[in-house]
Amino acid sequence: MRVLFDTNVVLDLLLGREPHAEVAAQLFTLVDTERLEGVLAATTFTTIEYVATKAVGRTEAKRQVRDILAMFDVAAVDGTVIGDALALDFEDFEDAVIHEAARHAGAVAVVTRDSTGFAHASLATFEPRELLAAVLAAE
After folding, report:
1. Which of 66, 98, 119, 129 has the most crowded Cβ, counting Cβ within 10 A?
2. Which CATH class, in words, describes the domain spanning 2-138?
3. Measuring CA to CA, which residue among 107, 108, 128, 125 is closest to residue 116?
4. CA 10 and chain centroid, separation
5. Residues 42/80, Cβ–Cβ less than 8 Å
6. How far is it, in rounded angstroms, from Cα 126 to Cα 69?
7. Cis previous bond, 128, omega within 30
């Protein structure tokens, strides 16, 4: 299953945000072991590098970004994605961009802790615990 990870799920792991970090780590393991095909929007990389630099310093932040880049495919955020996001009836533009980046990258779902932001999504949306349970049940 090809799933785009919302930025909040990545930050849960990188920043150790409890009680969400453990489930995020389990989802990352599923991606790392190729039991789940993970995708991140290009904009997620800039956000995680910025936040991680403030939390752990520039050198460690760059290492984290490199590690994540090795695990995940990158969904483009280009003019088409932005234009399509503008046409959606989403309350939050960032969520609309994430949705359209996922759609254009061939993802079938988005995993996010902000499922209300994706109320008008045409893709499936999962809370992290829901996705973990679904993948494990399918094995």
Report:
1. 98
2. alpha beta
3. 125
4. 6
5. no
6. 22
7. no
Task: Give the Cα-Cα-Cα angle 59, 111, 10 (nearest 5 degrees).
Answer: 10
Side-by-side strand order, sheet with 73-75: 73-75, 37-41, 2-5, 109-111, 124-126
Q: What are 65-82's pLDDT values in tens digits?
A: 999 999 999 999 999 999
- Asked if residue 95 lies in contact with residue 80, where contact means CB atoms within 8 angstroms, the answer is no
pTM above 0.90, yes or no: yes
Q: What distance in Å separates the CA atoms of residue 37 and residue 124, rounded to the nearest whole number?
A: 15
How far is it, in rounded angstroms, from Cα 77 to Cα 104? 9
Q: Where are the domains of the chain?
A: 2-138
User: From CA 70, how far away is CA 81, in angstroms rounded?
Assistant: 23
Residue 56, amino acid: V
Q: How far apart are CA 111 and CA 92, in angstroms?
A: 16
